[in-house]
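Feature request disguised as a bug: please show the residue count (176) next to ADP-ribose pyrophosphatase YjhB, NUDIX family in the output. Example input:
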Amino acid sequence: MPNVSDYPPQEVERFRVVPAAYVVLRRGDEVLLQLREGTGYMDGRWACAAAGHVEAGEPVHDAAVREALEELGVVLRVRDLEPITTMHRTGAGGAAVDERVDWFFACRTWDREPRLQEPDKAADLRWWPLDGLPELTVPHERHVLDRWWSGELGPVEAYGFDPAQARAQSDAAAGR
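Example output, currently without the count:
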């Protein structure tokens, strides 16, 4: 298998994507969301209660379980993670960090009561009905949750490549 050093630097940068795992805790027709604060990204918007980057050498399922423990104090089992969708998205900024692959999982079973574990990154934690999500929800996450609820979500979604989606994401990131 080739190593990164086998490729020219411009090729390594050109094909880099940032992987992330999202866990949607679901209770009936409600999902648990956190209000982002102090992160510098989408602060003041509601987001999936547990999400974060997949670390080098870490399987995505393990990342989802780890993020749920770190952010909510809940214990999940990999077997209880239900794939919702995989999203390929772009921030349209041209930088490697703008290119993302996100795995979304639902989970209906967990141990311990969810609570904010990182108060420096979130101001609130609340259950929301899937048909009544807050207006200020992170746009790409809102896209997934709305389409999931309506039954229109595909196994693979693209986000940010459409000019309207790119504008919504950019406006939300800028706090508009």
